[in-house]
Amino acid sequence: MRYILGFSVFATTAAALVTQGRRAAPEFKHVFMFSIDGLHASDVPKYVAQRPDSNIASLLKTGIRYPNAFTSAPSDSFPGTVAQFTGALPVTTGIWYDDTFDRSFFNPETKCIGPPGAPISYDESIDFNATALFTSIDPADLPEAFLRGACTQIFPHERLRVNTIFELVRARGDVTTYTDKHPSYDVVRGPSGTGLTEGFFPEINAIPNTVPATIAYDTLHIEAFLNWTSGISILTGEKLPAIPTLMGGNFQAVSVAQKTSGYVNATGFPFTAPLLEALDFVDGFLGQFVSLLEERGIFEDSLLILASKHGQTPIDPNLFGEVAPALLMNLTGVPIAHATTDDIALIFLEDEADLDQAVANLNANREVLKIQEIIAGTQEFLARDFGNSKVDPAVPDIIVRPIKGIIYTTSHSKIAEHGGLSDDDRNVALIVSNPNFKAQTIEDFVETKQVAVTALQALGIDPELLEGAKDEGTTGLPGLF
Ligand SMILES: *[C@@H]1O[C@H](CO)[C@@H](O)[C@H](O)[C@H]1NC(C)=O
Ligand SMILES: *[C@@H]1O[C@H](CO)[C@@H](O)[C@H](O)[C@H]1NC(C)=O
Ligand SMILES: *[C@@H]1O[C@H](CO)[C@@H](O)[C@H](O)[C@H]1NC(C)=O
Ligand SMILES: *[C@@H]1O[C@H](CO)[C@@H](O)[C@H](O)[C@H]1NC(C)=O
Questions:
Q1: Which of these, 6, 51, 210, 400, could form a disulfide with 193 (CB 3.0-4.6 Å)?
Q2: Under 8 Å between Cβ of 33 and 410
Q3: What superkingdom heads the lineage (predicted)?
């Protein structure tokens, strides 16, 4: 019901805008965007050196590589994804992390009664069944907030403050599809809820955290990519109205291999056997996908974008270390409403008046907490484009950046993580390829949020219609349009 209502409103306004803003001739009929989660910019030349006949090597022969591409900060998968489809960062989108906090939200099933301020976990915890492969979001598990004046269960896409490229492509009547690791990636549908013709979200929490199991899981995404590109629904097996104009999705196998086996030494090369296996697996899909595009006669009309939503830290296995999140929270020394912890900590205080005390306590414990940097205070946040915690209920009070390689966890089961601010997390693989391109390496500093604008340019849709990109002045990637 929610989706249908949203659509009629959106269709009128956005379709009219798209018609006004349409350019003369779109250069591409299809944009296909794949995130190899975890893949660093630095992994690409290493893989190609080891596998000169790989499909990635072949895509690069007619592709542009951006070795200085950076994903969002924080580099969690959720804001990393949102950046690529909105052209914007957490300060604009309100999406900081999958598991975070909002000072204006209420707990599930409270009818927005009681003091505001609630954790928001847009991960498996909102599923009907968090250990079932095929499940969906249980509205009863959603946090609540006032939306257009009414207390509402907030789906992930409704928390997003700006539109997505899926909404713009769909508004002109085209087919859009996306696949990712939890039903919560519903977020890419955008605030209208209408951005996807079809979304396919098998729950990764349903499978063991091993490379073989994750390869089997990624095979579900591959089936979706191949069937969609053959004009077939992955949900019903019926024909789609057309091959998607915009299709996106991700692979998890490389990320899991990095977290469980990783790299042999500080140079990041050679890859351990499981990591190489995961890379070969994704590379194999790329070959299959290109063959399908050729078979259907649409390869030349298609822009392929490989952009990883996050990297993984550390590459150098010697840097890895754990610090207990409970210790971090305890030594902050003041009441904490919520702390998101990975290789970063986002701290929301119960009382913002405690900020100076909390920062002083953290400073006094830098060594034991293995802290590299404490980011706090309106001026510092604004200067670094994180927004203002005093006026924006989604912005944390404190960001703790640990020394590279340190993870705030007690899991003892992983040797790397992402979400943080280090280059190993943020400097990700980014390749744009088409058979009519010349091989090129563009060394400019670029951000993965720029792919949103590039995708619209490729399809002849006015990027001015992308709200977050417009707010942040996000431009398309250099060297293309
Ligand atoms: C959740 O899914 C798992 C895996 O399919 C199943 O074993 C379990 O019984 C389900 N739980 C409920 C409450 O349905
Ligand atoms: C995907 O397409 C293949 C080949 O046409 C078919 O065998 C398979 O059943 C399809 N998958 C789904 C989920 O419809
Ligand atoms: C990394 O490992 C490779 C293979 O064992 C070795 O050739 C190389 O010298 C190592 N580099 C460093 C810095 O340890
Ligand atoms: C930190 O831990 C100590 C010792 O367990 C305890 O006495 C203290 O109350 C804790 N402080 C906070 C802020 O939780």
A1: 6
A2: no
A3: Eukaryota
* 115 Cβ contact list (under 8 Å, min separation 6): none
Q: By C-alpha distance, which of 229, 187, 184 is closest to 84? A: 187
* Domain boundaries 14-317+427-472, corresponding CATH code: 3.40.720.10
Q: What is the dihedral of CA 433, 437, 438, 442, to 10 degrees?
A: -50
Q: What single-letter DSSP state applies at residue 240?
A: P
Give the residue extent of every domain in the chain: 14-317+427-472, 321-408
Are the beta carbons of 205 and 124 closer than 8 angstroms?
Answer: yes
Place of tokens 């949102």: 82
Both tokens of 46, joined, read: 């290493």
ω into 314 cis (within 30 of 0)? yes
Residue nearest to atom 14 of ligand 1 (CA): 129
- Using the atom order of ligand 3, give the atom closest to the CA of residue 265: 1
- Contact predicate 347/339, CB 8 Å: yes
The tokens describing 315, both together, are 């590459």
- Nearest residue to 226 via CA among 201, 213, 244, 253: 244
Q: At what angle do helices 355-364 and 325-332 cross, to 10 degrees?
A: 120
CA distance 207 to 184: 17
9 pLDDT above the threshold of 90: no
Cβ of residue 325 lying under 6 Å from some atom of ligand 4: no
Interatomic CA distance for residues 149 and 348, integer angstroms = 25
Q: Are 75 and 426 in contact (CB under 8 A)?
A: yes
Per-position b or e across 368-378, b if 16+ CB within 10 A of its CB:
ebbbeebbbbe
When the pLDDT of each residue in the chain is averaged and rounded to a whole number, the result is: 94
> Looking at residue 17, what is its pLDDT?
37
Number of residues in the chain? 481
Quick one: pLDDT band at residue 25, thresholds 50, 70, 90? Answer: low
pTM of the model: 0.94
The single residue listed with the structure tokens 């519903």 is 186
The pick from 133, 200, 222, 223 for probing ligand 2's pocket by mutation, whose C-beta has the most ligand atoms within 8 angstroms, reads: 223
pLDDT at 90: 98
Express each pLDDT in 246-281 by its tens digit: 999 999 999 999 999 999 999 999 999 999 999 999
